[in-house]
Specification:
- The complex is a heterodimer of chains A (134) and B (485).
- With 134 residues, chain A is mostly beta strands.
- Chain A has a domain at 7-93.
- Chain A has one helix at 102-111, and strands at residues 7-8, 18-19, 26-35, 38-47.
- In chain A, the strands form two sheets. Chain A has a two-stranded antiparallel ribbon with strand order 1-2.
- In chain A, a hairpin with a 2-residue loop joins strand 3 (26-35) and strand 4.
- Chain B folds into two domains: 2-84, Outer Surface Protein A, domain 3, CATH 3.90.930; 99-395, Aldolase class I (TIM Barrel, Alpha-Beta Barrel).
- Chain B is built from 16 helices and 17 strands.
- Chain B has helices at 38-51, 54-60, 64-72, 79-82, 132-144, 165-175, 179-184, 203-210, 222-228, 238-250, 269-279, 307-319, 331-339, 391-399, 414-417, 433-469, and strands spanning 8-10, 15-19, 22-26, 32-36, 76-78, 97-105, 107-108, 128-129, 146-157, 187-194, 212-217, 255-258, 283-285, 328-329, 357-358, 363-365, 377-380.
- In chain B, the strands form four sheets. A ten-stranded mixed sheet of chain B has the order 14-13-12-11-10-9-6-15-16-17. A three-stranded antiparallel sheet of chain B has the order 2-3-4, with helices on both faces. In chain B, strands 1-5 form a two-stranded antiparallel sheet.
- In chain B, helix 11 crosses helix 12 (307-319) and helix 13 crosses helix 16 (433-469).
- The chains are: A mainly beta (134), B alpha/beta (485).
Chain lengths: 134, 485
């Protein structure tokens, strides 16, 4: 397994260089509607590169129910988001889970109370970026 | 499930961006990107509030698939969902922390006299040094508040922290032997925020061995830097600082360079970026000068950079053809917020106790900028008890919540910016016209910057994903500028 902090810059011009996790953004899109002059894509934000082993799990949040054993190398910065979706029961409310489907977003968006206890999802809460090297 | 929804409205948190016939609806989860037909969707969305009912909206806009998807993806929501108070339970319980930065003011003295220095001379720059006992108590107190497998970042700060280099060395040695870190799997990392005008002997090898990162202040090339970052005798410090940066860089020590953006260098940020990366900086941060000194007084307003020039030049840095966005703060911050679907309740870690500064006497302050002010005093390392359980944090978590800030509460960008730097809210002299103007200015530059950078990040991330999905190269279709490098 690759070192989680040194994921190779695959497909990038600067590929010999190793980048830190924070330098990666993973987002994918799917065409969900074409017609009536409209081309509509849904964009799945994957956050920064997650588990180097499976590549499919959350970013820093360990409360995602889709986490598998190979994902436990994630840093576990999430201290326990609340806000389980009462409508679909499928979302922990952490907003980091890539497993959410479109049909859940109406309810999950409303149910998430903003990750009040989570210092990992927001990225900035543990530091003052004006004073700390990143 | 969605077919039963009739009373509808726009998701009050959603951000709708348009550019010609393209549109993005960013909802903090799965954004919708309209590659063609954005004008029609914009028109539809603009009438949702007015019409307020699904069937009536369908009659005017007979596109059920579009409306279905806008509901399914949370851009249009049931009315009752939008009225919920999502931030009612906003307080952070004083549980064990997963990430804290501890700023140790190892030296409250400095060998320089920078024109905009935020450290007030009365209560901050007292010419005092921290002793080993106080440093140990501070670290021990913070560690007792940490969760298992958490991260404590110890930032050696000043004044000029390297004036107390022996203590820094001692602390790092001490930390290696703390049993609690091993027992709880607490990860310690270290940073030094320094002017780097001098370099203690052996520090390069020491920094490399202990993986210590440096944040070095340098405001530009010699011409620009020496206007602001000067010694007490008025001489510019550029030559000394740049020489030492090269020494650290050639020793493979991680260095971020920090440019304090003032009216004197705001026009030259792209030039400074190139200069700093060539000099050996691994990344470059461009925070704007803070109007406030730690003691609550103000720096001369003539040093405030124009908010429009600031963002204009930051965007020019982004457009530099060869510099990766991840190397430029605050651009990297906003890209990561968008990519992580971050919902910021506050602008920084202060209300969570994530930015504590301990001064040489052992007093704990909630933020470096509040050292010496009664409103920033949390407690002392010499007192019993857990400072994170104090009423102080409970109160400011409520007061500084973006939802409770008058100028932010109705802004749908607030979840991305969180209200920005919170120091302006600790200003106590709002009756003074100068302070009032500084507060207005502070909000203005934070707000302007957050909106523009968040907008850039949303467009760029969504466009990049769409172009990958549609198999086109950036710029080949949908008029994509293709800047996500």
């Amino acid at each position: 397994m690759k070192n989680k902090d040194e994921i190779e810059a695959i497909g990038r011009e600067e590929s010999p260089k190793k980048y830190t996790r924070a330098e990666f953004i993973r987002a994918s899109a799917k065409l969900i509607l074409k017609g009536s002059g409209i081309v509509l894509f849904a964009v799945t934000l994957g956050g920064i590169q997650g588990c180097a082993e499976c590549g499919g799990c959350c970013t820093q949040c360990t409360s995602c129910t889709s986490c598998t054993e190979t994902c436990t190398t994630c840093t576990g910065a999430c201290t326990g988001c609340t806000g389980t979706c009462t409508a679909c029961m499928g979302c922990t409310g952490c907003m980091a889970c890539t497993e959410c489907t479109g049909s859940c977003t109406t309810y999950c968006t409303a149910a998430c109370t903003g990750c009040t206890g989570c210092l990992g999802c927001t990225g900035s809460l543990g530091i003052c970026p004006m004073l700390t090297a990143r | 499930m969605h077919s039963e929804i009739q009373d509808i409205c726009l998701n009050k948190d959603a951000i709708i961006l348009t550019d010609n016939d393209r549109l993005v609806a960013y909802n903090f989860n799965t954004p919708l990107f309209v590659a063609e037909g954005g004008r029609l969707v914009k028109s539809l969305l603009s009438e949702v509030e007015l019409i307020g009912e699904r069937r009536a909206l369908l009659q005017k806009y007979p596109y059920p698939s579009i409306i279905h998807n806008l509901i399914a993806y949370g851009v249009i929501v049931p009315k009752e969902k939008n009225s919920e108070n999502k931030t009612a339970d906003h307080k952070i319980t004083p549980e064990k922390k997963s990430q804290i930065s501890l700023y140790l003011l190892v030296s409250q003295d400095c060998n320089m006299a920078c024109r905009y220095c935020f450290a007030g001379t009365d209560k901050y720059l007292k010419k005092t040094r921290m002793n080993y006992d106080t440093a140990k108590k501070a670290i021990s107190l913070l560690l007792s508040s940490m969760a298992e497998n958490s991260t404590l970042s110890i930032i050696f700060f000043g004044g000029e922290p390297l004036l107390n280099w022996p203590l820094i060395n001692e602390i790092v040695t001490h930390c290696k032997e703390i049993p609690l870190c091993k027992e709880k799997g607490i990860n310690l990392n270290y940073g030094i925020t320094t002017n780097l005008s001098f370099l203690p002997r052996g520090i390069v090898q020491w920094a490399k061995k202990n993986n210590v990162g440096f944040l070095v202040d340098l405001d530009g090339d010699r011409e620009l830097n020496d206007k602001t970052r000067i010694y007490k005798n008025g001489a510019g410090a550029y030559d000394d600082i740049s020489k030492n940066i090269k020494i650290l860089s050639s020793g493979k020590v991680n260095i971020s360079l920090r440019v304090t953006v003032s009216s004197l260098n705001v026009d030259h940020l792209p030039r400074i970026l190139e200069h700093h990366l060539e000099l050996g900086g691994d990344s470059v941060a461009f925070p704007h000068v803070s109007p406030y000194l730690s003691d609550g007084s103000l720096i001369p307003p003539s040093l405030f950079p124009d908010p429009n020039l600031y963002i204009e030049n930051l965007l020019a840095c982004y457009k530099s053809s060869h510099v990766h966005w991840s190397k430029i703060w605050p651009i990297n911050d906003f890209f990561l917020r968008v990519a992580n679907k971050a919902r910021m309740k506050w602008g920084c870690g202060l209300p969570a106790g994530g930015t504590c500064a301990v001064d040489s006497a052992g007093d704990i302050h909630s933020c470096i900028w509040l050292v010496g002010r009664p409103t920033g005093l949390v407690g002392s390392v010499n007192e019993e008890g857990n400072p994170f359980e104090s009423e102080y944090f409970s109160q400011i978590q409520t007061k500084l919540l973006a939802d409770n800030i008058e100028e932010c509460c109705n802004c749908n960008w607030k979840l991305i910016c969180g209200g920005g730097c919170l120091v302006r809210h600790f200003n106590t002299d709002f009756s003074d016209p100068c302070h009032k103007e500084a507060t207005r200015y502070s909000h203005s530059i934070v707000c302007n910057t957050a909106k523009k950078l968040a907008e850039l990040a949303i467009w760029e991330i969504c466009q990049d994903a769409v172009h990958k999905a549609s198999g086109n190269k950036p710029g080949e279709n949908y008029n994509n500028p293709g800047c996500l490098r």
